[in-house]
Structure formats: C-alpha cells, structure tokens
Amino acid sequence: ISLGAGLLLHGEADAARLHIETALELDPQYQNGDLLLVLSLVEQKDFDRALASARELVAKTPDDVTAHNLVAWVQGQSGDKAAAKASYAATLQRFPGDPGSSHSLARMAMEAGVDAAAKDYYEAVLQHHPDDLSTTLQLALLEARGGNGPAAQARLEKAIEAHPQALQPRLLLARYRLSQGEAEKVATVFTGLSDSQREDAAVLQLMAIAQLTQREHGDALFTLEQLTNSNPGSADYHYLTAMAAAGTGDVEKTEAELRQT
After folding, report:
1. CA–centroid distance for 199 within its chain
2. Contacts of 110 (CB under 8 A, 6+ apart)
3. Given its phi and psi angles, is residue 192 left (phi above 0), alpha (psi -120 to 50 degrees) or beta?
4. Which of 128, 137, 150, 210 is disulfide-compatible with 183, CB 3.0–4.6 A?
5. How many CA atoms lie within 13 A of 201 on its CB side?
6. First-to-last CA distance in the chain?
7. Residue 5 pLDDT
8. 53 Cβ partners below 8 Å, 6+ apart?
9. What DSSP line would sit under 158-226, residue for residue?
10. How far is Cα 21 from Cα 33, in angstroms, rounded to an integer?
11. Which of 121, 117, 114, 154 is nearest to 135 (CA)?
C-alpha cells in the first residue's frame, strides 16, 4: 500500500493501481487500500471502476461517512453533478451535520448562485459541531461575500476564541482589519501566537503592510528583512522594503530594493 501511495503521489496511477490491488488481495479489509484504489482509478479517469470500488467500500464499512462521501465525490469527478448532489444529500440524511457532505453541497449551491442555501448547509454543521473551524471560516467568507463585514468579523472572532492556536482565522481577520482602515488593530490580532507562527510569511507580510500604513517605517523595515531573508527572490517583498526605506529617507536602499522588483 505504501508503495502504491507513493507512486500515486508521483502521478504513476497505473503502477499505483497494480500495487494497491495486490495489497487488497492480501488484506481485503484494509480500508485505506480501498480509498487509494479509488483515487488511482479516478486519476486514470476509469470512473466506472472507481464508482464500483467506492460502493464496495460502502458495503464493507456502511457506518463510515467517508466511504459514502467517496461515492458522491467520484460521481462529481466523472461530471455527473446531479448524481453527486443526490448522494451527498443521502449521506447527510444518514449522518446529520456531517461537515464533508455539507461543505460539498454548500459549494454546489454557491456555484449555482444560491448563497442562502449554502449558508443553511454550513449552519446545519454548527448545530452538531458548534466549534468546527472550517465551517466557521466558510461562513465568515460567505458573510463577506454577501457584503456583511460585521457578521464576517464576528465569525472570525468566534473561531479565534474557540481555536486560539489556529492561524487561518487570524490571517483572515487581519486582512479584514486592513480593508476597513484599521491597521492599528492588526498587531492585536496576532497576540498569543507561538514564535514559529509569528515567523510565518503571511503574518509578517500583514504586519509589514500594517506598519507601512501607520508610517512605522523603521518597524516595517525590520519586519521585511525577515521576509526577504526567507525569500530573497520575492519582488513583492523587495517592493515593500523599498517603500519602507523611502519612508526612512534612505534613498540608496530604496533604489537598491527597487532594482530587485
């Protein structure tokens, strides 16, 4: 199985399928093997066999929601969106509040331009899993998409409260603060992060932009040095560094940084 998984990751679907099928002959109850077999068949666009294998997995593990969602996913990959939607809905009937099927149905609703239905799917997840992070973030993005910034902010703040070590809600909230002209609140958003999280490129870039917005050019230079040291080839980082250098009056550094953009 491990060899088959490795081959699949490297795009060698045919060889992967052979290894996985051999492993399943040796141990038919190995669930991960069934999953990988379906993935390899989809990679080969052999959708009929992939769907048959996914349904066999459901028969083996009828109480496993992942197996049921796998059937719907294969149908979607084959282009049969109607069948996929029906399968996801059936899964949701059997496993109320399941994030996987709910999120898939919500995405389909948004693709159809029915954001209200998407919101209902996400809200239903929270009724069963009140602190589900991915669902809360999706709702925040949906609120923002609908122009309801305060509601999006409230969702993000709730996510941070429930998952204080999660980085994504803080990044989204920091971007929202910047979009609202509240650069002075960005540093507070990142309070409580670990040292390694504070060194994350996305965090540093948002901090630098907030510092530049507040004309804290010296602080911005220090922040941007960390970014350019980690990724010296980034034209964006050099451009931001040029802006910070210009703010300090360092013409030579400004010109040097601009030459690297």
Report:
1. 20
2. 118, 142
3. left
4. 210
5. 9
6. 46
7. 41
8. 34, 37, 38, 41
9. HHHHH-TT-SHHHHHHHHHHHHTT-GGGHHHHTTT--HHHHT-HHHHHHHHHHHHHTT-HHHHHHHHHH
10. 8
11. 121
Cα-flanking dihedrals φ and ψ of residue 46, to 5°? -95, 75
**Angstrom distance (rounded) from CA 171 to CA 27:** 44
Question: Model confidence at 2, in pLDDT bands (50, 70, 90)?
Answer: very low
Query: pTM for the complete prediction?
Result: 0.80
Of the candidates 238, 239, 243, the one whose C-alpha atom is nearest the C-alpha of residue 211 is 243
Q: Which two tokens stand for residue 183?
A: 């650069």
Q: Which residue has the tokens 């399968």?
A: 87
User: Counting every residue, how long is the chain?
Assistant: 261
102-129 pLDDT per residue, tens: 999 999 999 999 999 999 999 999 999 9
Among all chains, which residue has been given the structure tokens 């049921």?
Answer: 68
